[in-house]
């Protein structure tokens, strides 16, 4: 199994409740950023007590507008029935790049289901999750380990 495929499999397994081998998952990486790592911020922060945590904050409404036009749009498209010609294309791509086939499963298990309870099209719910996440990180991580970066400040 190739390294990329193995890592995607590990992340999917974590999202689906099988295993939490942070050493294997982060092997070879000095840091983790963005999703899907952000879905698991608490566990690695506890596992690596000396690690710094960067919390990126922004205007919640602008963030939702952006993510709903990009990442969430793709995830919602995954829920719709796939036309036959796209199924064939996906099978061919998955045959040539097996980790590609794991990506929708990994994203669903980690971000869409674990973080947003599958309700990514519910703006009020997603914004509440977003704001709760910011508050929880600020409450859980000691100030000497936490850098809060507000993108509005440049």
TrEMBL record:
InterPro entries: P-loop_NTPase, Sulfotransfer_4. This is Sulfotransferase family protein. Coiled coil: none annotated. SUPFAM superfamilies: P-loop containing nucleoside triphosphate hydrolases. It comes from the Bacteria.
